[in-house]
Backbone:
């Protein structure tokens, strides 16, 4: 990983969410690509690039 540090880090991970009654199954992100659990997102090593 890079040694450069950043003051601002914008992260938009592919997080999981539950389907609501008004949503179609094919519209869920997990139907199109892999998604991450909240635990996986929390374990991202952001501190290694944060200033």
Residues:
């Amino acid at each position: 990983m890079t040694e450069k540090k950043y003051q601002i880090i914008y992260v938009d991970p592919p997080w999981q969410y539950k389907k609501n009654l008004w949503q179609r199954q094919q519209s869920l992100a997990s139907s199109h690509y892999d998604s991450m659990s909240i635990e996986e997102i929390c374990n991202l090593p952001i501190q290694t690039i944060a200033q």
